[in-house]
């Protein structure tokens, strides 16, 4: 009597797509971020703290006749918050991960690079949305900022999407200039704060020196703040912009060009390991 045995046929498992891996990576990035209390406090609470401080100090001031400073400042702080989440956060976080060897280990896994970057983008979108909701809630409930109409909300949406995309890509690109994770905050934070001061976040943009206005126009934050002012300030304020109008078409064009240019720089310069 002969006995025959059959081996089980191994069924190959299909490798998850880059999109699915990127979504999983985004969830992991978000959990790691929430476990770091310092990152949560600095990233989420700092813009809110600035809004409370400046809103309290200049509550009785008007940026122009009939428009309180707090209303102007809310528009600038929402744009600055997106800069903090996208540019500053990633430009500091990625060099630290590179120094620890985390990026090198990830590069050696089957996970495609696109999944890693998608995870970072999802992290930025989640934090940016949470921070924006906090700022809007404070603006509407404490500082009596009028709720925008439907057309203004559409402008708010595309300015936010283009702005945070440009800032995210710029943060990834700038991370290649930082030599070490230890020196990242010292190198990135002054750049982010400097852009806020020259882009009309803390003061009326047209009150700044001409050379400073021209310098700010080279970077996305100036256009983000200008787009946000078109959302939260009355149409009459557009006459106080440098060109005498909100220039929403120019806002969209400049932010889109920054997205494309920063993406090209990311692909050419991003490093998975330290220079040493």
Brief summary of the model shown:
With 276 residues, the chain is an all-alpha fold.
> Could you say which structural class the secondary elements and strand pairing correspond to?
mainly alpha
Question: In total, how many domains does the architecture comprise?
Answer: 1
Mean model confidence by pLDDT: 87
Number of strands: 2
- What is the strand content? under 5%
N-to-C SSE string, H for helix and E for strand: HHEEHHHHHHHH
Uncertain residue segments? 1-11
Oligomer: single chain
**Biggest beta-sheet profile:** 2 strands, antiparallel
How much helical structure, as a percent, in the residues?
Answer: 55-70%
Radius of gyration: 22 Å
End-to-end separation: 69 Å
Strands of the biggest beta sheet: in what spatial order? 1-2
Shape category? elongated
Q: What's the tally of helices?
A: 10
Describe this structure in words.
- This is Transport permease protein.
- Keywords: Antibiotic resistance, Cell membrane, Membrane, Transmembrane, Transmembrane helix, Transport.
- Belongs to the ABC-2 integral membrane protein family.
- It comes from Virgisporangium ochraceum.
- It is found in: Cell membrane; Membrane.
- The structure is a single chain.
- This protein is mainly α and about 280 residues long.
- It has one domain.
- The chain has 10 helices and 2 strands; from the N terminus they run ααββαααααααα.
- It has helices at about 20-35, 35-55, 70-100, 100-105, 115-140, 150-175, 185-200, 210-215, 220-230, 250-270; strands at about 60-65, 65-70.
- A two-stranded antiparallel sheet has the order 1-2.
- A hairpin with a 2-residue loop joins strand 1 and strand 2 (about 65-70).
- Helix 3 runs parallel beside helix 6 (about 150-175), helix 3 runs antiparallel to helix 9 (about 220-230) and helix 9 packs antiparallel against helix 10.
- The longest helix is centred in the N-terminal third of the chain and has 31 residues, at about 70-100.
């Amino acid at each position: 009597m002969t006995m025959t045995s059959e081996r089980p046929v191994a069924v190959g498992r299909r490798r998850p797509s880059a999109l699915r891996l990127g979504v999983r990576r985004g969830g992991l990035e978000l959990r790691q971020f929430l476990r770091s209390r310092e990152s949560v406090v600095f990233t989420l609470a700092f813009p809110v703290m600035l809004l409370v401080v400046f809103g309290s100090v200049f509550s009785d001031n008007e940026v122009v006749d009939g428009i309180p400073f707090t209303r102007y400042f809310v528009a600038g702080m929402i744009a600055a918050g997106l800069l903090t989440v996208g540019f500053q956060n990633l430009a500091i976080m990625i060099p630290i991960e590179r120094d620890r060897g985390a990026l090198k280990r990830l590069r050696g896994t089957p996970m495609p690079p696109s999944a890693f970057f998608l995870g970072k983008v999802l992290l930025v979108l989640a934090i940016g949305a949470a921070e924006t909701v906090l700022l809007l809630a404070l603006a509407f409930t404490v500082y009596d900022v009028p709720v925008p109409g439907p057309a203004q909300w559409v402008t708010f949406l595309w300015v936010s999407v283009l702005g945070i995309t440009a800032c995210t890509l710029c943060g990834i690109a700038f991370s290649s200039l930082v030599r070490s994770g230890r020196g990242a905050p010292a190198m990135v934070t002054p750049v982010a704060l400097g852009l806020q001061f020259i882009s009309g976040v803390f003061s009326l943009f047209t009150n700044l020196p001409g050379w400073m206005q021209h310098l700010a126009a080279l970077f996305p934050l100036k256009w983000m703040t200008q787009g946000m002012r078109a959302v939260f300030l009355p149409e009459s304020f557009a006459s106080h912009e440098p060109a005498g109008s909100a220039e929403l078409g120019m806002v969209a064009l400049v932010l889109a060009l920054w997205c494309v240019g920063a993406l090209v720089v990311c692909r050419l310069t991003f490093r998975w390991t330290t220079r040493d």
